[in-house]
Protein 1
Amino acid sequence: MEKKVILQTKKIGKYFYQPVKFKALDDVSFKVFESEFITMVGKSGSGKSTLLYILSTMDTDYEGELFIGDEKITGQKPNYLAAIRNKNIGFVFQFHYLLPEFTCLKNVMIPALKLGKFSPQEIEEQAYQKLDLLGIKNQALKQASKLSGGQQQRVAIARALINHPKIIMCDEPTGNLDSKNTSIVLETFHQLSKEFGQTIIAVTHDNDFAKASNRIIELADGKLIHTT
Amino acid sequence: MKLNVNSEIALTHLLTRKRQTMIAAMGVTVGIGIFIFMISLVVGFNNYSDEALFKAEPHLRIYQDDTLSRPLIKQIKPDYTTVIINPKIANLSNTLVNPEKIIADLKKQDDIVTVTPQVSVNIFYNNGISQINGEASGVNILEANDMFNIESTMLAGDVRNLLSTSNGILIGVGIAEKLNIQLHDNINITSSIGVVKMMKVEGIFKTSNSNIDLTKSYINLAISQQLMKKSSSYLTDILVNIEDPNDAPKFSKQLQNSTIYKVEDWQAANEQSMSNKKTRQVMFGSISLAILLVAAFGIYNIINMTIKEKLNDIAILKATGFSGKDVINIFLKESLIMGIIGTSFGLLMAAGLIKFVSGIYIGGDREYFPIGYESPIFFIGAILGVLITLGAGYIPAIGAAKIDPIEIFRK
C-alpha cells in the first residue's frame, strides 16, 4: 500500500550570518510518510535542530520549499503559520518548557483552548485522557513547576497531543531523562504512531533511541548523508 | 462568564505576582487621584472667582461708547492740504436711544436669562465732613438681584425694601464703616453735576472685593435719573445675563452686528483675570499630566519586566500556535486590568481628597474651600487612566509579539 506523504522538503538551504556567513543546511530534500516514527541524528552542529525548526514552521528564513500534507508552507504569513502549528503540529522540547504558573492540566489544555474546537469541559476531559495515557493523571492539578523533570516532560508530550496533531516534533525529547523515563517516552511514541497514526519527527543524539525508531535521517555539515 | 484563553493567561500572570500588580496599579491610583484632584481644584477655584465676578458684573453690557470728533473735510489725497483738528469726545449724551426696544428685542431671544437697564452715576457719599466718592447704580432692584444675587451678599437690611422706599439705598460695607453709618441711617449723596439727595440706608452688603464695598451702591432707577437731571428714558447701560457665561463672546459679536452701541462681554472686560485663569489651567494641567505620565511609566516598567521574565513562556505560546496578535492581546489585557484597578482606586482617592479639602475653612464670604465633585472631570480622569495604561502596555507588548521563539529555544 502506498503511504501518504505528510511532510516534504525540497532543496532546503539555510544560512547563518552571525558571526560569519555559514551554510547550515544545504540541499536537504526528503519525504515523511503518515504514521512514521522518524529520528534525525547527527553530530552537534550538523544542522539537525535547525532543520527541525524549519519543519516546525517557526523559522521562515530559508531557501527551498516545505510542504505539510499537500499545502505549501513556504511564504505563508506568520499568523497563518501560528494557526497551522496550533492545529497540525505538536511540540516537545528538550527542556520541557511548561508554563510554570499553571497547573499541569491547564498546560495541556492551553493549545486546545486556543484552537477553540471543543468546549472547555470537553477539553478538560481530553486533557485528563492524555495525562492518563502518559501515566501522570494524578499530578494533573499540581503546578507545573513543582513536578520532576521526567514528569514535566510527560506533561509536555501530553500537551503536544491535545489537538490530535498530524505531526509531533521533538527536540531531544529524552535529552535529560533517565533510562526509565526514556523508555516510557519511547513506548509512548510507538503507541502514538501505531495506534493513532501520528507522525513523529524527533531530533536526538541518543543512538539507542534512534535505533528504536522506524527510520533514521542522518545529517552531517548541513547535508543529508543517510536515510534508512 | 467563561474567560477566553488569552484572558486566562493574563489573569494568571497577574495573580501569581500580586505584589507587582498592586504596585503598578497603585502608581495609576496616585496619578489619577492627583490628576482629578488638581483639575477639580482649578475648576472649583475658577467657578468661585467667576461667581464672585458675576456678583458685580453682568455677562454682557451694552452702552454708548465715547466717540471722537472727526475732521469736517476729509483728506481726499495724501498731497492735498491737511486740515488740522483737535479730536474731542463728541458725545452729547451717553444715553441709549429707545432702550425699551433694545430690551424688548433682547428678551425675545432664547438663551438670554435676564435683561435689565442701569444708570451709572458718579457720586459722593457725605456724612458730616467725611466724604467718599463712588458709583451708584440706578437699577430695577428685583432684576438686578436676579442678575447679581445681591441678596446673598447682604449683611443687614433687605433688597426688597428699595421697592417700598423710593429714596432707599444699598451701600457697601466699606462705605458704611468709613462714614460710620448704620442701617436705617440717612446718607447724603451728591452727583457729579451737583444734585444733592438725602437717602435712607436700607441695606449694607459685603462682596469679596473690598474696592467694590468701598464705592458701590444700589439705588432706584428713578433716583439715578433725577441725580443726572434726566428724564425717565435716560439709561446708560443695558445689562444682559445669558444661560452659559462662556458663550458671552459669541453673543457679544452677534449683538454687536444689530446695534450701534458698544457690546462688551465679561471676558473682554476682565482680560486680566481671564489670563490668570488660563495660566492656572495650563500650570495645573501640565503638573497633573506629568504625574499621570510617571504612573504610565510604572505600568510600562512592570509589563516590560513581566515580558523579560516570560520570554520562555512567550516562545512556548508562539510555538503552540499563539500568534503575535494573541501575545499583544495577553499583555494589553494585563495592563488594562492593572489600569482599571488603579483608576477605580484613583477615583476613590480623588473623591476622598476633595471631601477632605472641601472641609477646610478659609474664611471670607465663601467660608470653605471652593472645590466640588465635577462628574465630567472624574469621567475624563477615568478614560485617561485606562487609555494611558493601555498605551504603556502596548509598547512592550509589541516587542513581545516580535520575539522569535527559535532564538529562545536555541539558548
Protein 2
Amino acid sequence: MTGPDPASDTKRKPGLWLWLPLGLFVAFFALVFIGLVRPASRDIASQMIGKPLPEFSLQPIAQDRPGLTRADFTTGKPRLLNVFASWCIPCAVEAPQLAELARQGVEIEGVAIRDRPEDLDAFLKQNGNPYKAIGSDPTSSIQLAIGSAGVPETFVIDGKGVIRYQHIGDIQPDQVGLILDKLKEAGQ
Amino acid sequence: MIRRLVLTLAAFSATLGTAPAFADDSLPPAPYAYTQLPDPAQEAKAQALMETLRCLVCQGQSIADSDASLAGDMRNIVRTRIAAGESPEQIRQWLIDRYGQYVSYKPVLTADTWPLYAAPVLFLLVAALLLRGRFRRARAGETGETTEGEGA
C-alpha cells in the first residue's frame, strides 16, 4: 500500500484510494455507535420449545400451597409455569400481570428458584399469590432442565406437558393478551 | 464529553430488557458449586468441561470463572453428572439441547461458523495469487527498478 508501482502511478488516480481509510473508520465508528445505542439482546432462548417437560417433583415451599410435579401439567388444560423468586425485583413488577391472568381463569404454577420459605411468604403476602402450586428449586435444577436462563420466565405448557412457548423477562401489562393468545394456541 | 459518555452508558444499560442479574439470592451454594470431586481424575474432567461452558448470567465468562449462583448450580450439575459416570461431551450436549450452541465455548463447524474456517484459507489463496502475479511481473521486468516492490 505504501509504495505503489511507480509505473502505474502516473496513469491511475489515487483519489478514491485516499478515502478508503476514512471510509473504513466511519464504518467502524457507525458499528460501535449502533452497538451502543441498540445493544444486541442478551436473552437466551430455550431450545425446549415443542419438547415435553422433564420428569420432576419439587417440594412445597409456601405455607398454603402444595409442591409441584410434572403430573400437574398433564391434566389436559394448558397452564403457565412461572419461574420466579422472592429476591428477584422484576418478579414483583410482574405480579399484577400474573394476578390479572389468574383472574381471567389461567392456572399458574410457580417454581421458586433458590428461595427461603420465610422470604417467599413475605413476597407472596406483599405481591399476591396467583399460584395453584409452588415447587421449591433450591439448586436451579428444573430451571436448567427446561432451558431457562433467568428469573422471571414464563412457559406455556399444553395439556399434555409439552412446552409450547417461553416468555423471557417480566410479563408487561401490554403482554397479557399475548400470553392469553399463546395459551389458547396451546389448547388447540 | 465524559458526562455524555456516562449518560450514553446509563441509557444503554436501561435498555436491557431483563435485569435480574443485580438481585441475588441468599441461599448457600449448591453442594458441588465450590466443592471439588473427591476423585482427582473426575475433578480434572469436570474442570476442563466447566472452563468451556458459558455462564448464562455473566455471558462473557465460563461457569468455572463466574460467581453467579446460576453458574454455581451449573457446576453442581456438571460435577454430579461426572461423578455419576457421564462423559463431559454428554453433559455438554445436554446443555446445548437446552440453551443452544451458545452455551458452549468449544468451537464447532456448523452452517453459521463455516466462514470463520473458510476465510483464512481464502485469504491465503488470494495472497498467493497476488504474490504470484507480482513475482511474475518482477521477473518479466528484469531491471533494477522493479525489484523495489519486493519488500512489500
